[in-house]
């Protein structure tokens, strides 16, 4: 059973009542599915008309090259969407894969049904599309930030740009990052050993302190 109370609080269904959401989900023929840890939700090369909203769990968007090298492009949690850009593009093969980081429940929505006005011409679709456009715009800004982060010439530059961005999002210099060390290395497109060595240097210099995925940024040390 889909938790409509939770959906009311999500960005996609912002401004909808529970009753409106129930009617909308029926109109969209939406369905939910649970994926095991490590299970692929979407795979590179597939064509999909559906995109997902995470009802519970976590999903990573990854890219594997010809030699098996993996890069984490993004990570999403409860209430967030993934795959919507590809679903909205007709017959566009996926250049990425989406994989469940842990047991994850996903609400699947058909992009064609979302974008097309239904026979009853309900107002739900207009509001839903407006919310979806807002989400896509925000993701575009997030992608711009990531390009800025990984375009830095040094590992330290990439780390500082990433941690600075996270501090801004969390409005604190005491932050939790959503990646373990290997995942962070893949996200920043750097070698894990080199990343660990650089983090250790930065901690010795007093720029940061950290334990696992908990980081504290020391602004004074950079002045």
TrEMBL record:
Classification via InterPro entries: cNMP-bd_dom (IPR000595), cNMP-bd_dom_sf (IPR018490), Env_Response_Regulators (IPR050397), HTH_CRP (IPR012318), RmlC-like_jellyroll (IPR014710), WH_DNA-bd_sf (IPR036390)
Q: PROSITE patterns per the record?
A: CNMP_BINDING_3, HTH_CRP_2
Q: Which domain of life is it from?
A: Bacteria
Q: Does the keyword Secreted apply?
A: no
Keyword Transcription regulation appears in the UniProt entry: yes
The HTH crp-type domain, residue ranges = 153-221
Q: Where is the Cyclic nucleotide-binding domain?
A: 12-135
One Gene Ontology cellular component term attached to this UniProt record is: cytosol
Pfam families in the cross-refs: cNMP_binding, HTH_Crp_2
Q: Which GO terms describe its molecular function?
A: DNA binding; DNA-binding transcription factor activity
Key words, A-Z: DNA-binding, Transcription, Transcription regulation
Name by which UniProt lists this protein = Cyclic nucleotide-binding domain-containing protein
């Amino acid at each position: 059973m889909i938790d409509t109370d939770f959906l009311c609080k999500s960005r996609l269904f912002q401004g909808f009542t529970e009753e409106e959401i129930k009617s909308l989900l029926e109109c969209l023929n939406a369905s939910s599915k649970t994926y095991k840890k490590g299970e692929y939700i979407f795979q590179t090369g597939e064509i999909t008309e559906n995109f997902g909203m995470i009802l519970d769990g976590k999903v990573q968007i990854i890219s594997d090259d010809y030699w098996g090298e993996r890069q984490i492009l993004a990570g999403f949690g409860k209430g967030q969407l993934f795959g919507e850009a590809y679903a909205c593009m007709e017959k566009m093969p996926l250049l990425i894969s989406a994989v469940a980081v842990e047991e994850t429940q996903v609400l699947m929505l058909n992009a064609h049904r979302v974008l097309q006005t239904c026979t009853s011409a309900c107002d739900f679709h207009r509001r839903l599309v407006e919310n979806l456009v807002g989400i896509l715009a925000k993701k575009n800004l997030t992608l711009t930030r990531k390009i800025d982060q990984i375009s830095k010439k040094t590992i330290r530059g990439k780390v500082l740009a990433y941690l600075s961005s996270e501090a801004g999002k969390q409005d604190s210099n005491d932050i939790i990052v959503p990646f373990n060390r290997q995942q962070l290395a893949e996200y920043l497109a750097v070698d894990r050993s080199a990343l660990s060595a650089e983090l250790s240097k930065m901690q010795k210099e007093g720029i940061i302190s950290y334990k696992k995925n908990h980081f504290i940024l020391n602004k004074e040390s950079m002045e």
